[in-house]
Amino acid sequence: MFAGLGILLMVAGAVLVWAVEKSVDGLDLQAIGWIMIGGGALALLVAAIRGAGWMSLNKTAVRTERHVSGDGDHLVEETRTI
Predict the structure, then answer these.
(1) Which of 24, 43, 51, 66 has its CA 20 to 30 A from that of 80?
(2) Rounded mean pLDDT of 6-30?
(3) What is the pLDDT of residue 58?
């Protein structure tokens, strides 16, 4: 979601900065375009950080071992994160 929003903001901002030659009283379209490009870059950065978090979650593995104690009456369970 953030990646799509980032790309949309960057494209719209680039259009305002480099393609629009009209002026509007009271608005600086170039400044608004640069702000949109910056917001889009920030959204892409958030998407990259969130994507890296999901990738690291997939690599987590859990290993569980069960052993019977020496006297044969107790079950010992050991869980490790690999």
Answers:
(1) 51
(2) 94
(3) 61
8 A C-beta contact, residue 9 and residue 43: yes
Contact 47, 6 (CB under 8 A): yes
Neighbour tally for 36: CB within 10 Å:
20
- Answer whether 7's CB lies under 8 Å from 46's CB: no
Helical segments of the chain, H only: 2-14, 29-58
Rounded to whole angstroms, what are the CA distances from 70 to 54, 64, 67, 74? 42, 19, 9, 8
Which pLDDT score, from 0 to 100, does residue 43 have? 96
Of the candidates 22, 16, 21, the residue with the CA atom closest to the CA atom of residue 39: 16
φ/ψ of residue 71, rounded to 5: -85, -10
For 68, the 3-state DSSP assignment is strand
3-state secondary structure of 69: coil
